[in-house]
Amino acid sequence: MSSTATPEKRRTALDALHRSLGATMTDFAGWDMPLRYGSERDEHLAVRTKAGLFDLSHMGEITVTGPQAAALLNYALVGNIASVGVGRARYTMICRADGGILDDLIVYRLAETEAAFSQYMVVANASNAQIVLDSLVERAEDFDAVVRDDRDAYALLAVQGPESPGILKSLTDADLDGLKYYAGLPGTVAGVPALIARTGYTGEDGFELFVSPGDAEKLWEALTEAGAPAGLIPCGLSCRDTLRLEAGMPLYGHELSTSLTPFDAGLGRVVKFEKDGDFVGRTALEAAAERAAAQPPRVLVGLVAEGRRVPRAGYSVVADGRVIGEITSGAPSPTLGKPIAMAYVDAAHSAPGTAGVGVDIRGSHEPYEVVALPFYKRQK
Q1: Would the pTM of this model clear 0.85, i.e. be above it?
Q2: How many CB atoms lie within 10 A of CB 105?
Q3: Which of 336, 334, 340, 344 shows the shortest CA–CA distance to 366?
Q4: Of 195, 176, 185, 190, which is closest to residue 61 (Cα–Cα)?
Q5: What percent of the chain has pLDDT over 70?
Q6: Measured between alpha carbons, how far is 117 from 355 in angstroms, rounded to an integer?
Q7: How far is Cα 248 from Cα 283, in angstroms, rounded to an integer?
Q8: Contact at 8 Å (CB) between 216 and 225?
Q9: Whose CB has fewer CB within 10 Å in the chain, the N or C terminal residue?
């Protein structure tokens, strides 16, 4: 009789601290991560109105360096990475040869190295980090570039919310005012060397701090102390999900998958056909772009409940007595005070205000309103 050992869950450098704060932990992509510390709703609203502090150390950092680092990334990814300036970042995707999305990524172009090589940091979703790493290594064979797994080299903390700039300014002399959205710069925060980025996933202003795991606890405590007067509280993955849902931001495994191309997901803008040279998936994506321009099979839309029942991923969207789509993400919206969802629906039912659309929740067709995404947009 054989037994299969359960793989040990990975723990971040802040694991003991989360437990001391009474966090409810959950398995996420093989990591033991804080789901919530108290009320998910309170954590969500803190980020919308004040500030929240997240541990995102499960994300996958991959460093790419060398004379042909930019050329490799232009070939391996769908975006034009060669055009990214030093200190800037770009949202992009890595696709299979058939155009299916392997992951969505943020790529940072870091300062030039002493050898004047370009240096990039690719940040992958935790669930896909190994797949992205393996794909980049495989695609790097014909390039003078080095792909390095740096997942253990970084802890990642994020401060999100309208009070986050003030909180961070009290701990650093880095030029935060000059740090644009989708940019990153090296600096020191509370005496800790960090890459300070501004690429949030909550719909609010905020910062991500890539630091050595050994410095993570010191930085967390400094941010907690500096943020307390502004109302900053620790936040788990549960409210991160409702925040990104309100902001209409896709989540891999829900709105994005290998069965969809970027054009199917309404994100064809990230594919840059005009860049020099070939790239993985180009031919398939050109065909997908033509199909989407002619008539998209399904369109990603927002749905707002007229009642109180919450839709979940996988539930059918119905109209005129037939299935017209499927929910990809659903949750109660603390900001709107109603259940909301994202769904892929037939193009004929995708216009905001389309009447007669419902969600099949355990056999009952609950009425929903089709709305444009995002559900929430912060006032700048």
Answers
A1: yes
A2: 25
A3: 340
A4: 195
A5: 97
A6: 56
A7: 29
A8: no
A9: N
The average pLDDT across 270-297 equals: 95
pLDDT for 115 equals: 61
Q: Which residues of 62-81 are buried (b: 16+ CB within 10 A; e: fewer)?
A: bbbbbebbbbbbbbbbbbbb
Q: Which of 88-97, 202-211, 289-298, 312-321 has the lowest mean pLDDT?
A: 289-298
Residues written for the chain: 380
Residue 157 identity: L
Query: What residues contact 236, with CB distance under 8 A and at least 6 apart?
Result: 23, 24, 33, 34, 35, 36, 37, 40, 43, 54
Helices (H), ranges, 9-158: 15-20, 40-49, 69-76, 129-139
For residue 344, pLDDT over 90 is answered with: yes
Q: Is 243 helix (H, G, I), strand (E, B) or coil?
A: helix
Pairwise CA distance, residues 324 & 303, whole Å: 13
| Rg, C-alpha atoms of the chain | 21
pLDDT tens digits, one per residue of 50-63 = 999 999 999 999 99
Rounded CA gap, 260 and 240, in Å? 24
Render pLDDT for 299-325 as a digit per residue (tens, 0 to 9): 999 999 999 999 999 999 999 999 999
The continuous run of DSSP H or E covering 26 comes out as: strand 24-28
